[in-house]
Amino acid sequence: MKTILQKSIVLILLLLSVLNKSEAQTGLWTWVHGDSAYYTSPRYGTRGVPDSSNVPAGMYAPVFWTDHDGKFWIYGGKDYSSGYYSDMWMFDPDTRMWTWMKGDSGLVNQAATFGTKGVSSPSNSPGCRGLGSPAWTDSTGNLWMYGGYSKQRTGSFPYRYMSDLWKYDIQLNEWTWMDGDSLPGSLVLGVKGIPAPSNSPGALAECSDYWIDNENNFWFYGAGQDFYSAYYLWRYNPQTGDWTWMSGGNNFGNAQYGTKGVFDSLNYPGARFAHSSWLGDDGKFWLFGGSYDGLVYDQFLNDLWCYDPQINQWAWFAGDDSLSDVAHYGPECQPADSLTPANGIEGRAAWIDSQGNLWKFGGKYEVPANAYTFNQSLLWCFVMADKRWMLVNSPVQDPYYSMDVQRRFGVLGQPDINSHPGARCGTASFKDRNGIFYMFGGLTKIPISGMDITVNDMWSYAPDPACLQMAGTNENHSIQQELIVFPNPADKLVYVQQSRDLRYSHIELMNIHGQIVHRQNAELLAELNLQNTIPGIYFLMLSNSIEKRYLKLIVQ
Length: 556
Hints:
This protein has helices at residues 4-17, 465-473, and strands at residues 29-33, 63-66, 72-75, 88-92, 97-102, 135-137, 143-151, 159-169, 174-179, 211-212, 218-221, 224-225, 228-229, 232-237, 242-248, 276-279, 285-291, 300-308, 313-318, 349-352, 358-361, 364-366, 373-375, 379-383, 388-393, 428-431, 437-440, 443-445, 452-454, 458-461, 483-486, 493-498, 506-511, 516-521, 525-529, 536-543, 548-555. A hairpin with a 5-residue loop joins strand 10 (211-212) and strand 11. The strands form eleven sheets. Strands 1-30-27-26 form a four-stranded antiparallel beta sheet, with no helix packed on it. Strands 2-3-4-5 form a four-stranded antiparallel beta sheet, with no helix packed on it. It has a four-stranded antiparallel beta sheet with strand order 6-7-8-9, with no helix packed on it. 48% of the residues are buried. The protein is mostly beta strands. It has a domain at 478-555: Immunoglobulin-like. It has two helices and 37 strands.
């Protein structure tokens, strides 16, 4: 096993070789596109023609995909006035431009045009949709979606949840109604594990799962309707057109946790919707949190689950086996068994990196035992190597005060220490070919009034390799408790506090190019003057005759 000293050498080489490249700074947010103002209107331009001035309306919980060419797609969504859209948009992360591809050019609450089942047509349309739908990109590049919430323009029932399955052909720019009902259909479970043409998940929304197995089958878990969360795992075979009920459905939807980290045929997450989800590089499906009981705002969860389709079993990996627990914070980039994000729904900004780690931003938090809810603004990572959460980024010094934080706009198109998307929920999320995370829109709060508002801004975040490297080198986790850096971010002064058993004798401040910009002796409580330090990302290197340790510091 490598020693901490050996790993420190690996880290310093990483900093000198990787971070010295003339690429965009990592570990910072970038405001990529969209408006910093509120109540802005969409700008459609010409259908099919990209333009830097094009932008969708501010959207909450649209359907979203990433295609095989690395382009991002959204459909539908809900605006701040409760209008539901039926437009298809495409965003190219290389050009940073939106293209309005199809739809009704800003008309809201439009009815679907189903056409003939299985037959593509330029006039077909799923109509207005919102509140999230399971969505998949198949092996040939087609985009699929199931169900969702549809608001009618007329009639005695102004809203309904749908049970239809649609396919969008990017090359033809056409929709095809593939399966399900043109009116809300009922749940038909059939026999667990047995596909059948009559099986159906029923009318659902509140889910953004995009799981696909090695045989190109589509999967999703839970979802539901107002005051009702489903608790079934479904698989759809696009070749045969059959649904299969695969897991769940026992004990009236109560979760069965079992032993943490152990797969078991008796485990399953129970009823939930509006959870976060990831498709692992190893083919496993992950989900976090969600609501146990629909719109009852005292039933939010913070547990992390994994499903292995090869053995058809679930395992609970992190978080609490109870409702509505609060977050457990720690120092940034330092995973620990005790850490976990807060309970939450609508944390749809969820990505997976090249190392298989799970990333999560934002969501809606509820105060335990009452109906007060707040939008979250923290970036978390579940480190797959040791199956533990770590806090990666907070817009404020104390994460406890990170709820309902306002957006901060730095320089458009540039990573900026002063930029932050603020607290929000119900976003669309993507990852480009270079491993950079993107998210669009969602719901946030207007300053002073505190009113909810949908926004149309696009943000990106490039993971900091040093953060993950430091997380992987901290074998002796007791050291994490013996070093405290505060405040962080800092502007004029920063303090480094050690335990009374003094470990380190020297402190050096190193920039991202590996250059030492300051050095001094390390005291029990060391004070560093930063008044002449250029804002940016730095690393504190603490050393003695035996070892070195690196801590990330943001100077603002």
